[in-house]
Design a protein that fits this description.
- The complex is a heterodimer of chains A (204) and B (136).
- Chain A has 204 residues and is mostly helical.
- Chain A is built from eight helices and two strands; from the N terminus they run βααααβαααα.
- Chain A has one domain (2-203): Serine Threonine Protein Phosphatase 5, Tetratricopeptide repeat.
- Chain A has helices at 4-32, 37-55, 60-74, 79-94, 102-120, 130-140, 144-156, 181-203; strands at residues 2-3, 99-100.
- Chain B has a single domain (3-65, 76-132), classed as 3-Layer(aba) Sandwich (Rossmann fold).
- The longest helix of chain B has 15 residues, at 16-30.
- The chains are: A mainly alpha (204), B alpha/beta (136).
- Chain A binds chain B through residues 34, 36, 40, 69, 72-73, 76-82, 84-85, 88, 119-120, 166-167, and chain B through 44, 48-54, 75-77, 80-81, 83-85, 87-88.
Chain lengths: 204, 136
């Protein structure tokens, strides 16, 4: 079972990963975006870490809801409301339980991913974060590692696609040949989750 | 509805200058006495390009007179941020609404209409109607 501490560690791991990969994310966002994805997410996840240290929510749902709220407030770009909605809806779907199962998380994450699709009006294949998140949510029912692999493969698979949503879509065919930065950061988020789960297994 | 309960207008742009310039333009074109409350929420809090949910929320509360608030937005994160705030439920004043309208023309139409004391539905309809004015 996964408790609030697990979800706090996930968010901390995501912050660390975003911090380490911020330059790469911004590089990916240079040819097809406005070159701020790394710095925007770094600012957002720093705020998430600070808020979680200050408030220490007692349930998994509350951890993700607070984290999502911080991302909406502080990121400044489209990834703020998108990631904010992902975490907040996932958190709300987890409810008030003190501990949740992996299956609960898989179901809740699917709800969060669907909310992101609704907010952005995008679908898999549009070269967005959904290309990593949808396969990850599907594979999470199997295992954390399967979700990590699915997200990484999904992100890589955005490279040959033509963007149909967001700023990159204005570039038409010129968006082809670049990995989508949102899919790349989504893969980081899921990889941080798998790492947190792996560390928990080792600790047990 | 009394004249002092006008619909408030909020402009959400990626740029502080764009938001405040459009507010100034709309106010100038509305003319003839006091206009409905209008506030600009442009750029990030640190002055960079982007959208700040804090600025949006503060602007919406500053123009809320109890008759609703119409939010006009420009691109990408401005649209998504307002949608996400509306989904939060308690971040924006009661009766706040995202208006699907061209930013400049819709704002002028919304402010002129709101200044007459029209209700939120009428203000939103006037702003949306700006889409039907073709330029060629």
């Amino acid at each position: 079972m996964l408790d609030a501490d697990f979800f706090r560690r996930w968010m901390t791991a995501a912050h660390t990963a975003v911090d380490q990969e911020a330059d790469r994310l911004t590089e990916l966002d240079s040819p097809i975006g406005d070159a701020d994805h790394g710095s925007n997410l770094r600012r957002g996840f720093a705020a998430v870490t600070a808020a979680l240290e200050k408030e220490a929510p007692a349930t998994p749902g509350a951890v993700l809801t607070l984290a999502g709220r911080q991302l909406i407030s502080t990121v400044g770009g489209a990834s703020g409301p998108l990631y904010g909605t992902l975490l907040r809806r996932t958190g709300k779907a987890l409810g008030d339980e003190a501990e949740v199962s992996e299956a609960d998380l898989a179901r809740a994450l699917r709800t969060g991913v669907e909310a992101v699709a609704t907010l952005g009006g995008a679908a898999p294949g549009d070269k967005t974060m959904l290309d990593a998140l949808v396969p990850a949510a599907d594979a999470l029912g199997e295992s954390f590692d399967a979700a990590r692999r699915a997200a990484a493969e999904g992100a890589e698979a955005t490279t040959p696609l033509q963007a149909r949503k967001g700023r990159a879509s204005y570039l038409g065919e010129r968006s082809i040949g670049h990995e989508d930065p949102g899919a790349a950061s989504s893969a980081l988020l899921i990889s941080a989750l798998a790492r947190t789960a792996g560390a928990a297994e080792v600790a047990e | 509805m009394s004249e002092d309960q006008q619909v408030g207008i909020v402009l959400v742009s990626h740029s502080a200058q764009v938001a405040s310039a459009v507010a100034e333009l709309a106010t100038g074109l509305s003319g003839g006495g006091d206009t409905a409350p209008i506030a600009a929420a442009g750029g990030r809090e640190d002055g960079g390009f982007g959208t700040s949910s804090e600025l949006v929320s503060a602007a919406a509360h500053s123009v809320d007179r109890g008759a609703g608030v119409a939010l006009l937005v420009d691109l990408g994160s401005a649209v998504l941020t307002v949608k996400a705030l509306l989904a939060e439920g308690d971040e924006l004043p009661e009766g706040a609404r995202l208006v699907d309208a061209p930013f400049v023309e819709g704002t002028v139409a919304a402010l002129v209409t709101a200044s007459t004391g029209a209700d939120l539905d009428t203000v939103v309809a006037a702003a949306k109607d700006a889409y039907t004015y073709r330029k060629e």
